[in-house]
């Protein structure tokens, strides 16, 4: 029976993705994604934030329990807004609430605005501040430079 225990351990070590410390694994992910998130944060493109969603998903999946709910509160509204924009064929880089595309009907505009309000809500903003502060406090690394 002993070889059965050794095989998974060897697989884990060879994959170099196994750790007993979820916090350390998460912090490694934060460092891994910092440059990409810095580029997105520095972008003047309003739609650049959607380019961070895969990275946010990766961080969300790696997040320790104490910060996982905050990541969900950040990612879920952004995904919803992305879905609504896509559903209505709207480019997030060029959309402006005060000057929406001429072919956008009132119902679609209302859906987009509702999703955008959720992204800008106090809950989402507070959650983003929490994940940023957690990365700085626990990992010693800001999400972006």
Describe the structure.
With 145 residues, the chain is mainly α. It has one domain (21-139). It contains 6 helices and no strands. α3 packs antiparallel against α4. The termini are far apart.
Write the layout of secondary structure elements.
Blueprint: H1 2-15, H2 22-42, H3 53-62, H4 65-87, H5 106-119, H6 122-139
Helix pairs in contact: 2-3, 3-4, 4-5, 4-6
Q: Helix and strand succession? A: HHHHHH
Distance between the termini: 50 Å
- The chain-level mean pLDDT equals 86
Low-confidence runs: 1-17
In this structure, how is the largest beta sheet organized?
none
Residues in β-strands, percent: under 5%
The number of strands is: 0
Inertia-based shape:
elongated
How much helicity do the residues have?
55-70%
Write down the Rg: 19 Å
Please state the oligomeric state of the protein chains shown: single chain
Structure annotation, total helices = 6
How many domains, in number, for the residues? 1
> Structural class, judged by helices and strands?
mainly alpha
Task: Give a brief rundown of this model.
The chain has 145 residues and is an all-alpha fold.
Which features does this protein show?
6 helices; single chain; mainly alpha; about 140 residues; disordered N terminus
